[in-house]
Amino acid sequence: MGSVVLTNATLYTGEGVLTDHALWLESGKIKAVLSPGEVPEDIPTRDLNGNWLVPGFVDFQLYGGSSGFLTRDGSVESLRNMRETHLQDGTTTIVPTVYSTTKARILAAAEAIQNYWQEGGPGIAGLHVEGPFISQAKRGAHSEAMVRPPSRAELTELIEKGGDVIKVMTIAPECFDDELLALLKTTDWAISAGHTNASSAQMNAFFDKGFSLATHLYNAMRPMESRELGVVGTIFDRHDVHVSLIADGFHCDFGAIRIAKKLLGDRLFLISDATFAKYQGTRFEFEGFVTNYDGERFTNDEGLLAGSCITLLDAVRNCIQKVGLAPEEVFRMASAYPARQLKMEDRIGYLKPGYAADVVALTPELEIVDIWTTSASLPPA
């Protein structure tokens, strides 16, 4: 990336909206936010005709691209396909995810990301390990044979061999004793409660230990009842828990998103949870994970949802056009808020000087105009 000034834009910086402003990009970084009279005459410009300029989206949880599927492939080629597929829709940073699988496949995925970074690959923040230490009762489409209790030996090996690459681990808190939770506390990972059948008492005990994250609100978690808050109600009742959500129109009703947003505010953020995106097949099977694609959603043979087929752009459109949330808040839900959970809010998720030049131009109807992205790699700082 050379130097260019993007002019005449409706600029959403991550903190507010600036009309008729310009953004100066240089060498993969944001150099400056400019008013019209500050645009240098000797730098190439691009007129955005009043369209949105927003931070590139940050996807905290996704399993595949158009063809690559990390759990199966464990390869740099798969990661490239995931990156390129989701980048087409404005997602500039991804956290590739493996679901419940063998220890060997988790470590193969971590090694693939390490190799991707060593090759200078951009836009991958690390690995999300969802399972295998989850509840059988709330495993959803995860393979029954792959879900297992946690052990100190397996966790220690994952920490020793994959600890620098793993950024997020989704667990069922009720499957962990205090000793194993203390072991997870020694890492820099974001430990998230998900695929869990925990009671409210168990969830509060987990959160009171300093954990503050949950995975895909409403889905694969114990629901709220009048005399037992479960997982959902406990999240709503606390003020220190952040949670992701899949806004594809199938995983939860749009009204449920409105309710969650009113209760959670800036603690609710978007993920795609994409099994694949822009998928051309109709059925996928691997290691007991079976999913059928009908052009709108992925389901297993029992009819359970098995991930989504969306990108974050689809989630953004749904939240603005169908849920009725303000555009600038939805842009935060797809960029600044997930960046914060990754502890990368000092590099991505905002349009500020010194930040990565990860920028998406959108029409008022939320169609892609253009995408700019840094050429720099994103291993842990």
From TrEMBL:
Binds 1 divalent metal cation per subunit. It comes from the Bacteria. InterPro entries: Amidohydro-rel, GlcNAc_6-P_deAcase, Metal-dep_hydrolase_composite, Metal_Hydrolase. The active site is at residue 273. The keyword Hydrolase applies. Substrate binds at residues 141, 219-220, 227, 251, 305-307. Keywords: Carbohydrate metabolism, Hydrolase, Metal-binding. Belongs to the metallo-dependent hydrolases superfamily. NagA family. This is N-acetylglucosamine-6-phosphate deacetylase. It comes from Persicitalea jodogahamensis.
